[in-house]
Amino acid sequence: MPNDRSIGIVPLMSKSNQIVTLTPNPALDCSCEAESVVPIHKVRTFNEVYAAGGGGINVARAIHQLGGEATALYLAGGATGVFLDELLDADGVSRKSVAISGNTRISHNVFERKGKVDYRFVPDGPLVTKAECNSLLKALAELDADIIVGSGSLPRGADDDFFARAADVAKQKGASFYLDTSGAALRAALACGGVALVKPSLGELSSITHKKLETRAEQ
Asked: Per residue in 42-90, pLDDT tens?
């Protein structure tokens, strides 16, 4: 299911819009439960659930579940990449994957029943080449789209301006570019001036504006 970083989907739901979501660093998400999480000893888990994950993939799945249509475009490699493809096919989500030599990362979410807390383990992901990133942008340019949603982190090896280049592809296609990312990738994309909608967290917005921001207490 989409996590708390998934971009808002309400503006995307028009049937007339052709939507493509862009996920350069997807993940095979494993969620499970454990009675307690302790160091050194084996932690037995149960109720394992696997899902295709990553920012843009979560957006595409949510749009599909709400009756809309979107194509998920992403990098994928290895046996985990094949499993990712199969999970999206099982969900009925339109997809296009671009092959990489590395393995798609696996993230783990463990809910501890004893403490009623979540433990989230999220790896950096594979090391990608410039050629693989360029292939992803080329695939993006070849897809019909009115709206392009770039979401998630960048894999190791990707240049900080990846989403800025994706925004330029969108501009050339006459498509709107929506973005949900962070750090240097977010700053580079904003500097290019081609982002129609951005979804920073409070911390990210504070970093961009160089101002201390606080939420207003509910009245």
From this structure: 999 999 999 999 999 999 999 999 999 999 999 999 999 999 999 999 9
Contacts (Cβ under 8 Å, ≥6 apart) of 142: none
Q: What are phi and psi of 85, to 5 degrees?
A: -55, -45
C-alpha gyration radius of the chain: 18
The conformational region for residue 21 under phi > 0 = left, psi -120 to 50 = alpha, else beta, is beta
- Please give the Cα distance from 171 to 185 (Å, whole number): 18
Handedness of CA 123, 124, 127, 130 (dihedral sign): positive
Q: Exposed, middle or buried by CB within 10 Å (0-12, 13-18, 19+), for 174?
A: exposed
How many of the other CB atoms lie within 10 Å of CB of 75?
27
Distance CA 200, CA 70 (A): 22
Output the CA torsion sign for 93, 145, 177, 85: positive
